[in-house]
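Worked example 3 (structure in, sequence out).
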């Protein structure tokens, strides 16, 4: 992987703080507070959606449950796409019939049932007063107790993927689960000397990772790439977004799902324009090269892909479209 420049790290850190992926970042949340009583026969204004969104589908004999952890909408940050102008970004948003000058980022956690084991892929945003952090409530609504989660497999250490490892009291949210993390990611973010050498703007990401993993340290186990983590679940190195960023290939009964993690951010921008580098990519050039290599394969093999930042439920295909790719959502299936 290409070495990360100091400027890339600075941009990444600024972007992470701006997107609420490290503690202390402020966002205006959608109003879900109690509303004044509505007149008879009318719906209350700004009525909140139900907080539980889950969708099950099969990959061979494996049941996949996509669980929405929320959606964050914000004004288009300056430099959101590092190597495109605001005019180009807004044109792409309009092309996708989305509001220019604004981005909405979904968050989707996957629960896998593999051979009777419950495995979460990433842990979501964690406790939050905003429009994210819905995983814990959704698991409760699905009658899935935290103690019944056997493993939590982490793709990388950005806050929207790891903060949900802790509950509101700062304790392990999944006390009986093995927490598995990429070796390269652990080596980078848990290195005290590396943190001391890092730019000030990046230290918050180090600090957050170390804060989150301290209470769950006895549960942590590292894993390497190209290793089967469970029956049919292969860890695939996809660095660039972070040094140890990992995707997963899930295969069963002749069916395959590529769990891309953060290989792209929202598809309206980064599937259509795979060379574009989101501000969260620590090594933008490496991230773009990885993205194109993987997407070429997915398009050629017509393999289904699950995206952490795809519109819920995050299951889709990608097809070649000129110099980029086209995002094709999978059909909803009413029968499991």
């Amino acid at each position: 992987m290409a070495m990360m420049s100091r400027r890339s790290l600075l941009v990444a850190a600024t972007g992470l703080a701006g997107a609420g992926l490290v503690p202390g970042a402020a966002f205006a949340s959608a109003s879900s507070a109690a509303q004044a009583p509505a007149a008879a026969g009318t719906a209350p204004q700004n009525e909140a959606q139900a907080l539980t969104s889950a969708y099950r589908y099969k990959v061979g004999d494996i049941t996949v449950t996509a669980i929405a952890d929320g959606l964050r909408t914000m004004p288009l940050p300056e430099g959101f796409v590092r190597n495109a102008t605001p005019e180009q970004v807004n044109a792409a948003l309009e092309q996708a019939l989305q509001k220019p000058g604004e981005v909405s980022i979904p968050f989707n956690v996957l629960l896998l049932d593999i051979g009777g084991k419950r495995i979460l892929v990433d842990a979501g945003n964690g406790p939050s007063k905003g429009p994210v952090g819905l995983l814990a409530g959704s698991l409760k609504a699905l009658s899935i107790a935290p103690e019944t989660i056997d493993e939590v497999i982490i793709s990388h250490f950005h806050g929207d993927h790891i903060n949900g490892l802790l509950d509101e009291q700062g304790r392990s949210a999944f006390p009986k689960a093995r927490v598995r993390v990429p070796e390269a990611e652990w080596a980078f973010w848990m290195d005290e000397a590396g943190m001391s050498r890092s730019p000030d703007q990046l230290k918050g990401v180090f600090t957050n990772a170390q804060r989150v993993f301290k209470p769950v340290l006895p549960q942590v186990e590292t894993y390497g790439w190209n290793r089967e983590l469970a029956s049919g679940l292969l860890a695939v190195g996809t660095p660039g977004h972070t040094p140890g960023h990992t995707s997963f290939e899930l295969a069963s009964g002749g069916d395959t799902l590529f769990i891309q993690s953060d290989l792209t951010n929202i598809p309206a921008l980064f599937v259509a324009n795979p060379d574009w580098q989101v501000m969260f990519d620590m090594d933008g050039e490496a991230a773009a090269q990885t993205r194109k290599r993987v997407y070429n394969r997915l398009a050629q093999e017509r393999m289904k892909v699950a995206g952490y930042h795809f519109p819920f439920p995050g299951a889709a295909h990608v097809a070649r479209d000129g110099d980029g790719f086209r995002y094709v959502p999978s059909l909803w299936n009413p029968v499991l």
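Notes: The first strand starts at residue 54 and ends at 59. The first helix runs from residue 6 to 18.
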